[in-house]
Design a protein that fits this description.
Chain lengths: 139, 139
């Protein structure tokens, strides 16, 4: 019987994988004690680093199932679809995970600015060292 | 008197900033409950996304002061300089922070592979959805 993919069946059990976590083809993401995994986001068109956010299992599942980027807001303690209020949504071109499967990389088509300050990327400040300490330079 | 920059004096107090955290030129990174901040790392030469790791205040300070990338290993519970055992060090070209100052982006000259599996990037697997669930494809 072919079953439709559901949110609960997407991930493998990390403890039941035969191969090492680095070499397995099974997707067994590791969520931290708060149930979250960090997701770095880059622009498919330019390669620019856009933002870093967090997903819980439901956000990651929804992202995989819908092709839109979903995150967990730690400040608002709620699931959100990127762009649901701003309109600046992210259509996911590729999802990657790392060697330890404890981080996610999303390559997206970004509609409008990714940052809530209306800048294209959230990383618009360079940290520069001086004798007085570290300061930020807008770029 | 001009004082040499020390590790303790690098960061501003988040609670003492007049401007919003998004618009200030003061560097006041936010460390989580475990004292860590995530650091995404990209390749200065190619733009490739290499890895995601964590820094505590000491690792971030050492990175700023030395120009080499330092991290905090959560599994080994120790500070480490990238490449100290593998030789695959990272010379930091640029450090950025994001709107909320709760994430770091390092743009580095990567010597050799960034990943402990000897691959250039840790993100060598693409997550693909299928009816049976999500699986990983090596790339």
């Amino acid at each position: 019987m072919v079953c439709a993919m559901t949110e609960n069946s997407l991930f493998a059990d990390r403890n039941a994988i035969d191969a090492s976590i680095e070499e397995t083809a099974e997707f067994a993401p590791k969520f931290d004690a708060a149930g979250l995994i960090p997701a770095a986001v880059t622009d498919a068109a330019t390669g620019q680093f856009l933002m870093l956010a967090y997903m819980n299992a439901e956000a990651l599942s929804k992202t995989l199932l819908t092709g839109d980027a979903w995150y967990w807001s730690r400040s608002r303690q709620k699931l959100w679809r990127k762009g649901e209020s701003s309109g600046n949504s992210q259509s996911v071109r590729e999802i990657r995970t790392d060697c330890d499967q404890d981080a996610i990389l999303l390559v997206v088509d970004q509609s409008g600015p990714a940052c809530h300050t209306n800048r294209r990327s959230c990383f618009y400040r360079i940290v520069e060292s001086s004798e007085a300490g570290a300061v930020l330079k807008f770029s």
